Amino acid sequence: MSAYNLPIDRIIFGDNQFFGINHMSQDKAQERAERFAKLENVMAVYDHAIDAGIDAIMLNSNDRARGICDAFRANPAKYGHLKWYPSIPYPHKYAAMVNDKGMVGAVQEILFAKGAKSALGKMARGASAVLTLDPFKLMKMLIDEEMAIYDGLDTRVVFLQNIIVDLMLGYDVPDPFVAYCEYIRERYDAWPGLITQNLPFLRAKLEEWGIEGVVICASINKIGYLMSPGVAEYEALLATNDGSKYPVMAMSTLASGAVPAPEAYDYINRLNIQSVVFGASSPGNIQQTVSLIEPAAKEAAE
Amino acid sequence: MTTPLKLGIIGAGRMGITHFSIANALDGVSVASVADPSKLITTMLGKYAKVGTYKDYKGLLKGEELDGVLVCTPPAFNPEILDAVLERRLHVFCEKPFVLNAADGARFASAYDQAGLVNQVGYVNRWNDMFTHTRQLVEDGLIGAPLRFRSEMFSPTIIRDVGDAGWRASHANGGGAVFEMASHAIDLIAYFFGAPDRVGGTSLSKVYSKQVEDIVSTSLFYDSGLAGTMYVNWSDASFRKPTNKFEVFGSEGKLQVDQHGAKIHLKEANEKHGLKEGWNQLYITDVHSSVPFYVRGIEYTAQLADFVASIREGKPVRCTFADAAANLRVIEQLFADDAAIRRAGAAA
After folding, report:
1. How many other C-beta atoms can be found within 10 angstroms of the C-beta atom of residue B43?
2. pLDDT tens for each residue of B251-268
3. Using CB atoms, which residue from A131, A170, A230 is nearest to B22?
């Protein structure tokens, strides 16, 4: 059975506690950066999460991800059962490239990064390569490059980061969404996933474009933080959403810490949401969160 | 139902493609055309987004009936673009720093005002909920009379030698930490207090760049007695994202704010705002507004929605060409002050 026919996990352990920007305190953010600069400290937190019963992990393809995945791959007896929910790409990498080289320069840099003999390099050869570029072929190669980090892990969903999803969404063009979703299913045998801050808008467009079988990950919290256009529209959408066609995964459930966990998950538990991704670093907070999230009323896909 | 507002985008770099996405998703707005010298960009946009594409602004202005344009080109190109747009009598949203000298800025400010055209500049911090909220608190007298301020901005934009190739590498093109970064820190000062009257003790330093400064520091003075300092560094790898920090000390309290939160210390509790004596903490989650569509940050949508509302309903413009021209006057003072101090140092 393909992974994209399997239900997605109810509770996913995220990575924001390691790498996210702490909006609440710069001192805390610095403390955390120092602590998690050491891989063993990161792995210790994962071990706490696994002890708390979690067996699904969301990890962005940032500059630390390869080292973390290596550590998981190195111990299949302990970690082989874990299910993976990678998110790609690492946006800061590309932002820095665009800063340095401009946009066309950044594309060229990506194409030639692996040398002229690589697949990308071959594509880029010839004077007009960048002009005649097939953007979807390039997209697929970039996906493969990011996904190499997760090689050999049991991948269930491959999420595209919201900075890309929401930027593309505004252009109102189905092609890149169709191409992404098809490629993830074919090449990775996984659910395509889209992260967004515009859940109602995105789902309406996916329906309009006839794209189904997509996991949508969105900020969902009772105060409406990072929820465009607003809480009421999210609640109305979730009330009628078909979780087998568009399983919804909630992120930012605590709204950067503005909502206490019991209140936050009491809200989430009442909504038609298939999955929750959360990040925490202390064993107590991890256990508390796991105990607060109730099983889904219905599984995403039978 | 009113007919959609038709916008053209001149310059499809990072800001141009962001504004395209946001504007196109707003109700009652359609992006009709894009001008950019990059064939890669215009080919993609023409093929997939199905908009008119042009290699430069001249073609765009000739080719389409538009209501307004978003000018997102490197600022050295903007004077000739803004002249041509004025001739076509179009409303304009222009990316900061708008143009590169105060005289051009003042000329366009008065020309567009006289023509009755909406003119707005993309100093996006004026739409950040934390800054708008705390500015209102200061205006309401929460911390008494402002006496001192500190405006800082940090980013990891230039953290190695990237050569002299890009437009960022020279002042003539609008590159350097003053035009690109300090302009934001100056605009925050101006947003809270209006433009300062003079500057002093300016120091512009290089870390990696050859032709332009990477670090900016200065003091700024008002005839009223209000004064403050500014420190801007775009070569600071300890920050992952551009971050503004702003602090105001007043006769009744102190306020420290960045894009995500604020700390307020008060001599006395303030009932109206629900703030207590001593320290108070506000988070962006306490004051956030919502926008119809989100890309990169609430403030990017809010500023474009305001531009549209200004065209449609005559909503007052929060950051006009005149505001941006005033920032350019401060920028010219910084360059002049730094040069004078260097000359004095060399003579001594």
Report:
1. 16
2. 999 999 999 899 999 999
3. A170
CB distance B293–A258 less than 8 Å? no
Q: Which of residues 270-309 of B touch A (CB under 8 A)?
A: 283-286, 288, 290-296, 301
Distances (CA, A) of A148 to A61, A152, A215: 10, 9, 21
A127 shares contact with chain B (CB less than 8 Å): no
- Interval A93-116 mean pLDDT: 71
Chain B nearest CA to A285, separation (Å): 21
| Helix axes B183-193 and B129-139, enclosed angle (nearest 10) | 40
Dist CA B168 CA A100 (whole Å): 9
The answer to whether the CB atoms of A258 and B157 lie below 8 A apart is no
**C-alpha count within 13 angstroms, C-beta hemisphere, residue B205:** 10
Q: What is the pLDDT of residues A226-246, one digit of tens each?
A: 999 999 999 999 999 999 999
- Which two three-digit tokens encode residue B332? 């010219």
Chain A residue whose CA is closest to B160? A100
Residue A25's pLDDT is 65
The string of DSSP letters for B258-304 reads: ESSEEEEEESS-BTTTTB-SEEEEEEHHHH----SS-SS-HHHHHHH
The domains of chain B, with CATH numbers, are 5-124+300-321 (3.40.50.720), 126-288+329-338 (3.30.360.10)
